[in-house]
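Worked example 2:
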Amino acid sequence: MLARQENFHMAVSVLTILSVAVMARLVSGLVENNSSDTTVYSVGRFPFLMPKVIPYRPELYLCTPVKVDYSKNYYIVGFEPNATMATAHHMLLYGCGEPGSESAVWNCGEMAKSDDEKEESGSPCASGSPSQIIYAWARDAPKLELPDGVGFKVGKDSPIKYIVLQVHYAHIDKFKDGTTSDDSGIFLHYTLKPMHKQAGVLLLGTGGYIPPMKVEHMETVCDIRENKTIYPFAYRTHTHSLGKVVSGYRVRVDDNGDDHWTLLGKRDPLTPQMFYPVENYEPIRYKDRMAARCTMESNKNVVTNIGATNNDEMCNFYLMYYVEQDEPLQMKYCFSNGPPYFYWRNKEAELNNIPDYDASHL
């Protein structure tokens, strides 16, 4: 099967190059059809799909890149999934300075290792390269359209020079005979019209583990250290099978040192894992804090670790936001060591007025 994979890589190299040419043609059409009306603009639809891959083992993460035209700024304004949860466990879109491999497709799991030196493997983005998550999908979530005037800037004046699609194939039964291939992915809706509200994503999550037959809280908190004002508009939760409730908060400290917790979003993570409108649109400012909790309930007789496979767990709260006439936060990730090493109640977290019941119940 690895030999087949090698030949497959050679074939899809041409497809990836062609996909860039398709994008160039779409952009050309946009330039010709662009309206001078400041409230109306053309939107292109770019098919960013896996190029007919045949996943060759369970729990496989595959990545494929597209290079963005460096001569222009593009603004991604919508995401249209082309996948089902029967095939793809989840999908992520990464914005990268450089991709994690020069191959057209490579193994890009969190612990990507190869049993055969001929198998390409690596992270979604190259080590030391700018890296951020742009979009995430799971559990048959529907398409997402960003608010008017909001877009993810990529290309010329952005650190994002490549977009990388990652698909997690938890199960491969339908691919075992080698006759079925997969084109899961995302249709990107984009425009050349400058968006004055630049979008960003902040991912909150944890490490740690869940003891057997126990309810556990996986928690994280971090400070906004950049002198920016961000406007939250959507959130997404993600766990595997043990997640019951995932909640995210803005925490603001008053002059008396009291914490005021504002709920941004709370969901059962086993419902469609789409981006939902936030519960509170108030801006988040310098010195505010971000906090998230995943309430996990284990019915297993073994420890469950945070990890990449379906037998592991994840605790993720994604916050999508925009900034006005500014650049998004340099901080893209907010992670803690998780249980049993970190909890909100730890002295070093310096949190008070913790909404313990509200954070764990719908």
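The first strand starts at residue 44 and ends at 49. Confidence is low (pLDDT under 50) at residues 1-38, 111-118.
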